[in-house]
Amino acid sequence: MPKFIKRFKAPDYKDRNVFGxxxxxxxxxxxxxxxxxxxxxxxxxxxxxxxAVGIFRKSGVRSRIQKLRNQIEANPxxxxxxxxxxxxxxxxxxxYFRELPECLLTNKLSETFISIHQHIPPDYRLEALQAAVxxxxxxxxxxxxxxxxxxxxxxxxxxxxxxxxxxxxVCFAPSLFHMCGPRNNQITGSPKRNRKNLGxxxxxELLEQKAAHECLTQMVLDCKKLFVIxxxxxxxxxxxxxxxxxxxxxxxxxxxxxSNHSAHIDTCIxxxxxxxxxxxxxxxxxxxxxxxxLAFKKxxxxxxxxxxxTAVDVEAPPVEVLNRVLRERHLWDDDLLKWGVIEKLDKxxxxxxxxxxxxxPHPTRDFCxxxxxxxxxxxxxxxxxxxxxxxxxxxxxGGVRAASLASRYLIEPCGxxxxxxxxxxxxxxxxxxxxxxxxxxGHICASSVGRVRDSFKQNTLSDGPETKV
Length: 469
What we know:
Largest sheet: 11 strands, mixed
Radius of gyration: 25 Å
Oligomer: single chain
Strand content: 15-25%
């Protein structure tokens, strides 16, 4: 191979859980872009450090911070900060954002944010920032919103902690913006700037740093306006595919099939069984890990969202797995907040509403679905199919009404009391781009069926009989 051709192997980050892991990888692993321990750290500082003078400006103790880092890497979910010093936790939070492989505002858009404060008049900057924020990857934008609201809460107590929005921007801007060459811990395509006096910033760098500071200060002060899209902007946009995913009433669903809702359900079930008989041909396979099969298929109906398929072996018979998915979601989905049957249509069909939590401070997702199940299929298989509908007795309980375009569970026996659980789904959670679904949502689905599987393992470990020798 010629020397000038060099292949870079993409890192898989298997040896890391928190620090130095891209937001997208965290999202694929945990269904949220920020590690839970970082959210706990923010919550702890909100509760205990609003009166800590110079928080984020004063350094913590290096040895304690390193010990805390090691604990977090070993167990990123269960982290209690109550016995720790606020300055150590604050330093740890800054380190997390500083060590992201790509800065939060991204290498491509950092220059855009900086240019807004260099070239756009003050009266138009907020509108320009709103537009720039919409260009960010969804996971970066959601993390930015969580961080800015946290910094805004801390700045509201500046009379006690002496950390105004401007002071906080001094502490965080170098970590959030990409300025003057590549970040220390990553390879980037941005060219290095050669300077004669290393360590002494030139005039251009000083102007960039000043604009970045001013930009972050404004984003902290206007954080509640920054993520709101102006209404006139929305009216100028045309999302023709959005109407395709809007839920319909039971009556409208019946009109579409020239029959009642049962015809729609039967069509869904027969389509799922046909896919199984054809051994799910035509699906593109993706590596998901954790012994879960993941694949997708593009649907040619004009809607940009993919159809995702996940499959996993479960140590339980089909009827038990169906009941776990149907009636015991709270055992395997920690994000489930509320749920209930709105209307019982027959012994195997109902309208069901549930609400799923989101990473704070983002809105919860409310689902209202027509769902039906069968337990009398050949060879002992079970199915559960569902689709979003509008119902007069299901007012919005969550922040956003999401749309389940298709959700199909097929549970087949595979011997020794085990089952093969296959889930095909296409869900619009609202407020996210097709790129987010293509890169992240399939892995979130894989994680979901993995938790269903693991919920039976936990039962076996805790409730199973003792082994007799």
